[in-house]
Automatic annotation (TrEMBL):
This is Glyoxalase-like domain-containing protein. InterPro entries: Glyas_Bleomycin-R_OHBP_Dase, Glyoxalase-like_dom. PANTHER family: BLL2707 PROTEIN, GLYOXALASE-LIKE DOMAIN-CONTAINING PROTEIN. Coiled coil: none annotated. Residues 9-211 form the Glyoxalase-like domain. It holds the Pfam family Glyoxalase_3. It comes from the Eukaryota. Transmembrane segments: none annotated.
């Protein structure tokens, strides 16, 4: 991977309550997605299933295996469960985080931190740490994670800036595009159209500057008027985005525009409000809930 390539959307994370991986699998099938088996993560706290998209990105439908009460108070397992950045103390069910494609041998944290120092945005990423998952077929996957630095008392900030996942083992083990049926969806989904992140109006300039340090490009459009909230957008890549031509995904950062969005911010803090998918003509249209997160479908332009 090129050192400057820090804008490839890898996956979006959707959380449901402990022990509900099989339930959420059916919920997403009912929405027109093909859901395939994932596995258990190293550390034994979480498990997932996957929705592989034709553009090479995917949805990670994740849940904790057990509630916190399953682990003895004071135990190492209970501490790891309570302090996990996706635990109930920090995140409610729904779209909770998103990842860009990292590298198994290039330090993404170094690249971003150097950019942030140069432009003064204040963005900072932790050094890479190892992670992994055991697939249902027993294959052991390995990767490195690069996460934004967030104060311990502000873990709800995770999900505003992306984390990075860089494969040590082949990416196709983690994202099985073969057989092609894995990414064939009854709804006609072709890929991600946009990821929309909401934040308080007073935070937009700061977060926009930090995302510019992360992505390496300024936003492609900015709008602001007394009658409408500010909005920033960056064009991203996906691992196979060439198949959709110019219809690449965008990361959109904006302030709440209506009462539903204001309530979302008040209850959950900043983060992903909506995920929009490109669909082929004759595919699903409109909007729905997951039931914990908002989805929209948009027919891809000719």
């Amino acid at each position: 991977m090129s050192e400057s390539s820090t804008k490839t959307l890898d996956h979006i994370v959707h959380l449901t309550p402990p022990g509900t991986v099989h339930l959420v699998s059916q919920q997403f099938r009912d929405l027109g997605f093909n859901v395939i088996l994932g596995g258990r993560h190293s550390g034994g706290l979480t498990e997932n299933v996957l929705v592989i998209l034709p553009d090479g990105a995917y949805l990670e439908l994740i849940s904790f295996i057990h509630p916190p009460s399953h682990y003895p108070p004071g135990s190492d397992e209970r501490h790891r469960r309570d302090t996990n950045p996706w635990s109930e103390a920090f995140k409610r069910p729904g779209w909770i985080d998103y990842a860009f494609l990292g590298s198994g041998d290039v330090s993404i944290s170094r690249i971003i931190n150097e950019r942030a120092r140069a432009d003064g945005s204040g963005a900072r990423y932790h050094s890479e740490i190892g992670g992994g998952r055991v697939r249902e077929d027993g294959k052991v996957l390995e990767w490195v994670i690069t996460s934004p630095s967030v104060p311990d008392d502000e873990q709800e900030g995770r999900g505003t800036l992306p984390f990075f996942c860089g494969d040590v083992t082949p990416r196709e083990w983690r994202v099985p595009l073969d057989p092609p049926s894995n990414s064939d969806h009854p709804s006609g989904v072709l890929g991600v159209a946009h990821v929309r992140v909401l934040a308080a109006p007073e935070s937009l300039d700061r977060i926009s500057a930090q995302l510019t340090s992360v992505i390496g490009d300024p936003p492609s459009n900015v709008s602001s008027s007394p009658c409408s909230p500010s909005e920033y957008a960056w064009q991203l890549k996906t691992p196979l985005s060439g198949g959709l031509g110019a219809n690449r995904p965008h990361l959109i950062l904006g302030a709440p525009a209506n009462e539903e969005e204001r309530s979302y911010i008040a209850e959950r803090g900043p983060g992903i409000f909506e995920l929009c998918f490109w669909v082929k003509r004759g595919g699903k249209e409109g909007a729905a809930m997951t039931p914990y997160g908002r989805i929209t479908w948009q027919v891809i332009p000719l």
